[in-house]
Design goal:
heterodimer; A: about 120 residues; mainly beta; 7-stranded mixed beta sheet; B: mainly beta
Protein backbone atom coordinates (compact mmCIF):
# COMPACT_ATOMS: atom_id res chain seq x y z
CA UNK A 1 0.00 0.00 0.00
CA UNK A 2 1.33 3.40 -0.99
CA UNK A 3 1.45 5.91 1.86
CA UNK A 4 2.58 9.52 2.00
CA UNK A 5 2.70 11.01 5.48
CA UNK A 6 3.35 14.71 6.02
CA UNK A 7 4.52 16.25 9.27
CA UNK A 8 5.96 19.47 10.59
CA UNK A 9 2.96 21.77 10.36
CA UNK A 10 1.99 24.15 13.13
CA UNK A 11 1.65 27.76 14.19
CA UNK A 12 4.38 30.19 13.15
CA UNK A 13 4.65 33.96 13.26
CA UNK A 14 4.84 36.07 10.10
CA UNK A 15 8.44 36.22 8.92
CA UNK A 16 9.24 32.89 10.52
CA UNK A 17 10.34 29.58 9.06
CA UNK A 18 9.05 26.03 9.07
CA UNK A 19 10.18 22.75 7.51
CA UNK A 20 7.66 20.19 6.37
CA UNK A 21 8.49 16.54 5.78
CA UNK A 22 6.79 13.82 3.79
CA UNK A 23 7.74 10.19 4.25
CA UNK A 24 6.77 7.87 1.42
CA UNK A 25 6.34 4.11 1.54
CA UNK A 26 4.99 1.43 -0.76
CA UNK A 27 6.75 2.64 -3.90
CA UNK A 28 10.28 3.30 -5.15
CA UNK A 29 10.54 6.90 -4.00
CA UNK A 30 13.80 7.61 -5.83
CA UNK A 31 12.21 6.96 -9.23
CA UNK A 32 9.62 9.70 -9.05
CA UNK A 33 9.07 13.41 -9.35
CA UNK A 34 7.43 14.74 -6.20
CA UNK A 35 5.33 17.82 -5.59
CA UNK A 36 3.94 20.03 -2.86
CA UNK A 37 0.48 21.57 -3.14
CA UNK A 38 -1.52 23.61 -0.66
CA UNK A 39 -5.07 24.58 0.13
CA UNK A 40 -5.95 27.67 2.12
CA UNK A 41 -8.95 27.27 4.45
CA UNK A 42 -12.12 27.08 2.39
CA UNK A 43 -10.23 27.71 -0.85
CA UNK A 44 -9.05 25.76 -3.86
CA UNK A 45 -5.86 23.88 -4.51
CA UNK A 46 -2.60 25.60 -5.43
CA UNK A 47 0.49 23.91 -6.77
CA UNK A 48 3.57 24.99 -4.78
CA UNK A 49 6.47 23.26 -6.48
CA UNK A 50 8.17 20.12 -7.75
CA UNK A 51 11.44 18.27 -7.47
CA UNK A 52 12.65 15.87 -10.12
CA UNK A 53 14.54 12.68 -9.48
CA UNK A 54 18.29 12.01 -9.56
CA UNK A 55 18.49 11.30 -13.30
CA UNK A 56 17.14 14.83 -13.80
CA UNK A 57 19.61 16.28 -11.29
CA UNK A 58 17.00 16.92 -8.60
CA UNK A 59 15.99 20.11 -10.36
CA UNK A 60 13.07 22.09 -9.00
CA UNK A 61 10.19 24.30 -10.14
CA UNK A 62 8.16 26.72 -8.02
CA UNK A 63 5.01 28.77 -8.15
CA UNK A 64 5.65 32.49 -8.38
CA UNK A 65 3.94 33.03 -5.01
CA UNK A 66 6.64 31.06 -3.16
CA UNK A 67 9.70 31.38 -5.39
CA UNK A 68 12.69 32.66 -3.43
CA UNK A 69 11.05 31.87 -0.08
CA UNK A 70 10.34 28.13 -0.28
CA UNK A 71 12.77 25.35 -1.16
CA UNK A 72 12.04 21.73 -1.97
CA UNK A 73 14.54 18.95 -1.33
CA UNK A 74 14.55 15.20 -0.99
CA UNK A 75 16.53 12.41 0.66
CA UNK A 76 16.11 9.25 -1.39
CA UNK A 77 17.87 7.17 1.29
CA UNK A 78 15.05 8.06 3.67
CA UNK A 79 12.24 8.12 1.06
CA UNK A 80 11.56 11.61 2.26
CA UNK A 81 10.52 14.90 0.70
CA UNK A 82 10.96 18.27 2.36
CA UNK A 83 9.57 21.78 2.04
CA UNK A 84 11.60 24.51 3.68
CA UNK A 85 9.44 27.60 4.11
CA UNK A 86 11.08 30.92 4.98
CA UNK A 87 9.79 34.49 5.30
CA UNK A 88 6.31 33.12 5.91
CA UNK A 89 3.31 35.35 5.30
CA UNK A 90 -0.24 35.12 6.62
CA UNK A 91 -1.36 34.16 3.12
CA UNK A 92 0.77 31.00 3.35
CA UNK A 93 -1.72 29.62 5.87
CA UNK A 94 -2.97 26.37 4.34
CA UNK A 95 -3.04 22.62 4.47
CA UNK A 96 0.09 21.42 2.67
CA UNK A 97 -0.01 18.19 0.71
CA UNK A 98 2.83 16.18 -0.75
CA UNK A 99 2.01 14.22 -3.89
CA UNK A 100 3.67 11.86 -6.32
CA UNK A 101 3.71 12.50 -10.02
CA UNK A 102 1.96 9.95 -12.17
CA UNK A 103 4.91 8.36 -14.01
CA UNK A 104 5.82 10.34 -17.09
CA UNK A 105 3.00 12.82 -16.51
CA UNK A 106 2.56 16.11 -14.68
CA UNK A 107 -0.41 14.90 -12.65
CA UNK A 108 -0.65 13.83 -9.00
CA UNK A 109 -1.76 10.26 -8.40
CA UNK A 110 -0.84 9.68 -4.75
CA UNK A 111 -1.39 12.27 -2.02
CA UNK A 112 -0.65 12.57 1.64
CA UNK A 113 -3.31 13.50 4.18
CA UNK A 114 -1.93 17.01 4.55
CA UNK A 115 -0.43 19.06 7.35
CA UNK A 116 -1.79 22.42 8.49
CA UNK A 117 0.45 25.47 8.57
CA UNK A 118 -0.93 28.55 10.30
CA UNK A 119 0.94 31.83 9.95
CA UNK A 120 -0.33 34.28 12.53
CA UNK A 121 0.90 36.63 15.21
CA UNK B 1 1.02 31.82 -16.76
CA UNK B 2 -1.85 29.53 -17.79
CA UNK B 3 -5.11 30.32 -16.01
CA UNK B 4 -7.64 27.54 -15.52
CA UNK B 5 -11.27 28.66 -15.26
CA UNK B 6 -13.96 26.25 -14.16
CA UNK B 7 -17.71 26.66 -14.49
CA UNK B 8 -20.01 26.54 -12.78
CA UNK B 9 -18.48 27.16 -9.35
CA UNK B 10 -21.27 25.06 -7.86
CA UNK B 11 -24.09 22.89 -9.10
CA UNK B 12 -27.07 21.38 -7.30
CA UNK B 13 -28.12 17.99 -8.57
CA UNK B 14 -29.98 14.86 -7.57
CA UNK B 15 -28.90 11.23 -7.49
CA UNK B 16 -29.20 9.90 -11.03
CA UNK B 17 -28.68 13.28 -12.71
CA UNK B 18 -26.15 13.88 -15.44
CA UNK B 19 -23.66 16.59 -14.47
CA UNK B 20 -21.22 18.42 -16.71
CA UNK B 21 -18.37 20.63 -15.52
CA UNK B 22 -16.36 22.83 -17.85
CA UNK B 23 -12.72 23.90 -17.64
CA UNK B 24 -11.12 26.49 -19.88
CA UNK B 25 -7.39 27.12 -20.18
CA UNK B 26 -6.12 30.60 -21.05
CA UNK B 27 -3.88 29.08 -23.70
CA UNK B 28 -3.50 25.74 -25.41
CA UNK B 29 -2.36 22.88 -23.20
CA UNK B 30 -2.39 20.06 -25.75
CA UNK B 31 -3.66 16.93 -23.98
CA UNK B 32 -2.25 17.72 -20.52
CA UNK B 33 -5.46 17.99 -18.55
CA UNK B 34 -6.51 16.12 -15.42
CA UNK B 35 -9.53 16.07 -13.14
CA UNK B 36 -9.57 15.50 -9.37
CA UNK B 37 -12.31 14.83 -6.84
CA UNK B 38 -12.04 16.11 -3.29
CA UNK B 39 -14.36 15.34 -0.40
CA UNK B 40 -14.39 17.42 2.80
CA UNK B 41 -11.45 16.67 5.07
CA UNK B 42 -9.79 14.42 2.49
CA UNK B 43 -6.93 14.74 0.03
CA UNK B 44 -7.85 15.07 -3.65
CA UNK B 45 -8.14 11.94 -5.77
CA UNK B 46 -7.02 11.73 -9.40
CA UNK B 47 -9.99 10.75 -11.57
CA UNK B 48 -8.98 11.40 -15.17
CA UNK B 49 -5.76 12.38 -16.92
CA UNK B 50 -4.71 13.20 -20.48
CA UNK B 51 -8.23 14.62 -20.99
CA UNK B 52 -10.05 11.30 -21.06
CA UNK B 53 -8.04 8.45 -19.50
CA UNK B 54 -9.66 7.08 -16.37
CA UNK B 55 -7.36 6.45 -13.44
CA UNK B 56 -7.41 2.87 -12.24
CA UNK B 57 -10.47 2.10 -10.14
CA UNK B 58 -12.51 5.13 -11.24
CA UNK B 59 -16.09 4.23 -12.20
CA UNK B 60 -17.09 4.40 -15.86
CA UNK B 61 -19.80 6.97 -15.13
CA UNK B 62 -16.97 9.53 -15.13
CA UNK B 63 -15.73 10.73 -18.51
CA UNK B 64 -13.61 13.55 -19.89
CA UNK B 65 -13.58 15.25 -23.26
CA UNK B 66 -12.12 18.30 -24.91
CA UNK B 67 -9.12 19.65 -26.72
CA UNK B 68 -6.85 22.67 -26.89
CA UNK B 69 -8.34 25.05 -24.35
CA UNK B 70 -11.81 23.69 -23.57
CA UNK B 71 -12.45 20.58 -21.53
CA UNK B 72 -15.38 18.85 -19.89
CA UNK B 73 -15.91 16.39 -17.04
CA UNK B 74 -19.19 14.49 -17.18
CA UNK B 75 -20.75 12.31 -14.54
CA UNK B 76 -23.37 10.34 -16.43
CA UNK B 77 -25.52 9.40 -13.44
CA UNK B 78 -24.74 10.87 -10.03
CA UNK B 79 -24.22 8.45 -7.16
CA UNK B 80 -24.42 9.58 -3.52
CA UNK B 81 -20.64 9.28 -3.15
CA UNK B 82 -20.07 11.71 -6.05
CA UNK B 83 -21.12 14.78 -4.09
CA UNK B 84 -17.77 16.51 -3.78
CA UNK B 85 -15.64 19.30 -5.25
CA UNK B 86 -13.96 18.75 -8.60
CA UNK B 87 -10.81 20.44 -9.89
CA UNK B 88 -9.18 20.52 -13.30
CA UNK B 89 -5.40 20.82 -13.65
CA UNK B 90 -3.08 21.55 -16.54
CA UNK B 91 0.22 19.70 -16.70
CA UNK B 92 1.65 21.23 -19.85
CA UNK B 93 3.23 24.53 -18.83
CA UNK B 94 4.98 25.71 -15.67
CA UNK B 95 3.74 26.84 -13.27
CA UNK B 96 1.29 23.95 -13.06
CA UNK B 97 -2.19 25.26 -12.36
CA UNK B 98 -5.54 24.08 -11.10
CA UNK B 99 -9.00 25.50 -11.62
CA UNK B 100 -10.96 27.11 -8.83
CA UNK B 101 -13.14 24.07 -8.27
CA UNK B 102 -16.75 23.07 -8.83
CA UNK B 103 -18.80 21.93 -5.86
CA UNK B 104 -21.44 19.33 -6.69
CA UNK B 105 -24.13 19.62 -4.04
CA UNK B 106 -27.24 17.66 -3.24
CA UNK B 107 -30.41 19.28 -4.56
Amino acid sequence: EVQLVESGGGLVQPGGSLRLSCVVSGLTFSDHYMDWLRQAPGKGLEWVGRIREKTNSYTTEYAASVKGRFSISRDDSKSSLYLQMNSLKTEDTAVYYCARDHPGKAYFDYWGQGTLVTVSS
Amino acid sequence: DVQMTQSPSSVSASVGDRVTITCRASEGIATSLAWYQQKPGEAPKLLIYDISTLQSGVPLRFSGTGSGTDFTLTISSLHPEDFATYYCQQGEIYPLALGGGTKVEIK
